[in-house]
Amino acid sequence: MGLTSKNYYSAKANSEYFSVSQYKDFLNCPAMALAKIRGEYEPEKGRALLLGSYVDEMLTGTKKSKAKFIEENQAELFKKNGDPYADVLQASETVARIMMQPLMMHYLKGKHQTIMTGGRSRSRWTATSPVSSSRI
């Protein structure tokens, strides 16, 4: 199976490749880790994951992908009156500060979320690199 951004988080990919997240799950609770791989358990996605994804998207996404992210997460990001929740406002301020720092923006150049695979101990592993750049 070839991994793409569309199937990276799929049940099939999770059953064919071992990831750092799965490794950590097995260290924490093997039964839960196996249930996740089998598709029998899916934990709730927390607020921290949403905000981290928001910051990542606002810093590295395209205009189109940013708009799509906001549209898909409208209810979690904004109040009914259209104002952002306090933690979203704080995340936006963080993004603005990062964007004002030339060195940070230099490190964010390059190809983002690069999918990599490899083998170790007769297991196939996968990972994404946050930034892949020869400039670092």
Query: Residue ranges: pLDDT <50 for 5 or more in a row?
Result: 132-136
The proportion of strand residues reads 15-25%
How far the N terminus sits from the C terminus, by CA atoms, comes to 31 Å
Report the C-alpha radius of gyration, rounded. Answer: 17 Å
In total, the number of strands is 3
- For the biggest β-sheet, the strand order reads 1-3-2
Shape: globular
Number of helices: 8
Short overview:
The chain has helices spanning 11-16, 20-28, 30-38, 47-60, 63-72, 74-77, 86-99, 102-107, and strands at 18-19, 111-120, 123-132. The protein has 136 residues and is of the alpha+beta class.
Descriptive notes:
- The protein has 136 residues and is an alpha+beta fold.
- It has a domain at 47-100.
- The chain is 53% helix and 16% strand.
- The chain contains eight helices and three strands.
- The protein has helices at 11-16, 20-28, 30-38, 47-60, 63-72, 74-77, 86-99, 102-107; strands at 18-19, 111-120, 123-132.
- Strands 1-3-2 form a three-stranded mixed beta sheet.
- Strand 2 and strand 3 form a beta hairpin.
- The longest helix is centred in the middle third of the chain and has 14 residues, at 47-60.
- The protein is globular.
